[in-house]
Amino acid sequence: MPMTINRTSSSTVALKHWLSLSRSAPLDISLETTERHDDTFKEASSAHAVAMLHVLANEAHRWRSAALDMDPHLCGVFVDMLLNQFNPGSLPNLKRLEVFALHDGGIKAPVKSLARAIGKITSLAELYLILNPDDNMPFILRDIPWGQLTTVYLGMPLTVHQAAFFLAHSTAAVTAIFRCIYDTPVSISNAQRSVLPKLINMTLNGTEGLLTIFDRFDFPCLEDLTVGLHSLTCVKPLERLMEGSRLSIRRFALHVTTRLSGSELAKYLHVQELRQIPHVEFGNSDILRIAAEAVVHLKKDIPILWSWNLRKGKSALVGNLNSTTLMSELRALCRLPHASRSIASIFCSF
Q1: Between these two residues, 267 and 155, which has the higher pLDDT value?
Q2: Are 136 and 165 in contact (CB under 8 A)?
């Protein structure tokens, strides 16, 4: 149905009625503008979203979470609300905010003002941001209250230095997710290390240079670590990473995009520090092909506590091989000679 003034009017009336019926119930809102390229439709969609946002603003005290996929115009309206219309207590219950705000052609979203507006939300605990990359991102986002956030999700491309800046300021973070960290930074061996005392879950995706993050920080409580790399050229960065994280980490997942050989997989799985981790997961598009060769290279050097579970998509190829009845399936799959019962393990998936 085409977006029209009449439809927008009907929608706002319906929304007001629903809000009146729901009374004081917490609100989890999701609002987005269209991705269509038709300029007329995009303008109408943006106006529709703005009208809905104005209605929802009257119930701002009920907002518990908000997911906003905004074009530059809607972003500007949202920023104006937070900075000029709301008072400091207007959003007392907003805990989670998701913002997707990218440039629309030559029109830029007011990201710096957006950061200042987010800084006004004193109740905020979880922040998810996807923005256009910028060389001055730490400066642009400096007004965000990083120190009060328990969850930080940054989906835009960041350099290692930028990612380290945001991590260093996220002192209360329990979960941190960086979707795209790139470049190979200069040596930082003399840089002062920071401590993130509360961080338990971390996901880092990008190029191999992101592993130098672990030369800058101590994570004494880190339990769940996922690292996604385009490539991993040698085992030393993995060894350094494990040396800094092995005391507390309970689960480690490494996903490598480029094609690997079985010997390369075996080399990574030979890292002794991995033996301290109860759950190890390795992901690669060729995992079903290279796993058998990797086991041949490992021979008997497979820790008892590991479990071997090869999966393709959501379908398990081999089940829980900690049980004696399934050990023969592992041997057959990997073309191994009769092996001792100490062979139990690697958790490999993608």
Answers
A1: 155
A2: no
